[in-house]
Amino acid sequence: MTEPKFVPLQHEAIPLEESLERGRLFYEQMNRRRTTRHFATTPVPREVIERAIATAGTAPSGAHQQPWTFVAVSDPALKQQIREAAEKEEAHFYSGRAPEDWIKALAPLGTDQHKPHLSDAPWLVVVFRKAYGLEPDGAKTTYYYTTESVGIAVGFFIAAIHQMGLVTLTHTPNPMTFLQELLGRPANERAYLILPVGYPAPQAQVPDIHRKPLGEIAEFR
Ligand code: IYR
């Protein structure tokens, strides 16, 4: 067994007043984030995507196994293939596969089987979750809390994209197995979601929906 090894924590002590001010500013910045389906086709340099993925990679993960792979696609032909495959699945979803309640829950968002953002956005970042580890010799290792870990990493990614002044969208075609095939991912990886990334279209719109206030989402005892 590997012995634990510790190094000193690098920590910046901040006076309480400044903590609160920073917290307020960060909240306000995050509260301005919106999910839009309307992307400009304006190119985005690869470096922006690298920054966001590097930030996602700072997320905590079960047993520090970092069970994620981010495949960033800018090739127009590949994006088109992904769009067509997703729209094929979504057409089934919206015309029968999804239970009535699900369709009803989505109604305020105005989603349908058409996914122009998958070809408009200059980048599609496809996130894969490693369901288990694969050693170079093919041996499998158990990974822990992979769904939670990848979810946290995606949260960091979304925050980074917003911080850089771009927009993204969490898109989950159902089912997503086509992504594993199209992108040639190994057997231990499962598609988790697609994040189109870019600048918003000049006429971009968002649903008129509101966030729950603190009092509704928190309880203190
Ligand atoms: N995957 C479908 C349906 C969908 C599901 C949920 I939950 C959403 O918040 C939005 C859409 C689609 O992408 O249209």
CATH class of the domain at 49-198: Alpha Beta
Q: C-alpha Rg, in Å?
A: 20 Å
If strands are numbered along the chain, what order do they take across the biggest sheet? 1-2-6-5
Question: Strand content of the residues, in percent?
Answer: 5-15%
Mean pLDDT: 96
CATH superfamily of the domain at 49-198: NADH Oxidase
Number of helices: 8
Shape: globular
Please give the CATH architecture of the domain at 49-198: 3-Layer(aba) Sandwich
Explain this structure to me?
It is a single chain. By secondary structure, the protein is α+β, with helices and mostly antiparallel strands. It has a domain at 49-198: NADH Oxidase (3-Layer(aba) Sandwich), CATH 3.40.109.10. The chain is built from eight helices and six strands. It has helices spanning 16-31, 46-56, 76-97, 100-106, 117-120, 146-163, 177-182, 214-217, and strands spanning 68-73, 123-130, 132-134, 140-142, 167-168, 189-198. The strands form two sheets. A four-stranded antiparallel sheet has the order 1-2-6-5. Helix 2 (46-56) packs across helix 6. The chain is globular, with a radius of gyration of 20 Å. The mean pLDDT is 96. The site of 3-iodo-tyrosine has 9 residues, from helix 3.
In short:
By secondary structure, the chain is of the alpha+beta class. The protein is 40% helix and 14% strand.
Outline the secondary-structure elements.
Blueprint: H1 16-31, H2 46-56, E1 68-73, H3 76-97, H4 100-106, H5 117-120, E2 123-130, E3 132-134, E4 140-142, H6 146-163, E5 167-168, H7 177-182, E6 189-198, H8 214-217
Antiparallel strand pairs: 1-2, 2-6, 3-4, 5-6
Residues 90, 93, 106, 109, 111, 171-174 line the site of 3-iodo-tyrosine (IYR).
